[in-house]
Design goal:
Blueprint: H1 2-55, E1 59-60, H2 68-84, E2 90-94, E3 101-104, E4 112-116, H3 117-122, H4 125-140, H5 143-167, H6 179-217, H7 220-235, H8 241-245, H9 273-282, H10 287-290
Helix pairs in contact: 1-5, 1-6, 2-4, 4-6, 4-7, 5-6, 6-7, 7-9
Length: 309
Amino acid sequence: MNHIKTFVLLAGLTALFVGAGYMIGGPTGMLIALVFALGINLFSYWNADKIVLRMYGAVEVDASHPEPLVRAYVADIEDLARRAGLPRPRITVIDSEQPNAFATGRDPDHAAVAASTGLLGLLDRDEIRGVMAHELAHVKNRDTLTMTVTATIAGAISALANFAFFFGGSREDDERPGGLIGTIALAILAPIAAMLVQMAISRSREYEADRVGAQIAGDGRALARALEKIEAYARGGAVNVEAERNPATAHLFIINPLSGRGGDNLFSTHPATHNRVEALLRLGVSQATRGRVGAAVPAGDGRRIGPWR
């Protein structure tokens, strides 16, 4: 159902984009905007992972890293990727106090995952595995490409709205399909509608990635504990500086890096954490299944001091 919902929402966003182009410039304006958006879309398709990783200063790591915590993180990603039937992704770490993680890349063969230093220092190993299994679920479901396309179309709609403000008056009212009032309404409402659709797609993808990630890791409760810890820490005031500078990337993270909203409201990029935790607990993963998850490093209790503390 989540895949169907995503398709419907993307179709609606595309229809909104086409309608916006027509309202502003008629068939010609729609065609010009569509070609422009296609160029941005193609560029994003081939370069999205590089852009995002560079934006957050992600550093690639491997099994030769001097820190045991990072080596364990790398080993777990490799193990989880095998369990998920995925190629080994690029494994990176970002230097950020805020505990968080994301995945990027156009397909499983060109995927990358990133965990913050704050996340590696806050969670125990089972919880880190749960978080990264969630991110690999995004890769498996090809969500990273879906969200790139969504962000691109939403950005194109915003660009069309700005075009309407600056150039809408250059045509006679009767030549514009929507007239002057329609153009003004479009300029105000189209970006809001695009944002709502984008956020709705993001929330549906998070629930699905939680479910698939719990299956990959074999323990939905570890991810549930991790989500609660991450949100509690974020509410304590840890700021993701780069995310604040680039809010369009907020949907990539496992927890909203911008603010700790308390519910599934229209303007939240992520579902409410308590709703996600309840859904994970309802999966009812048995203790025997959890016992199959290997761990070369024993899991700890509570917060531990990582190599960057």
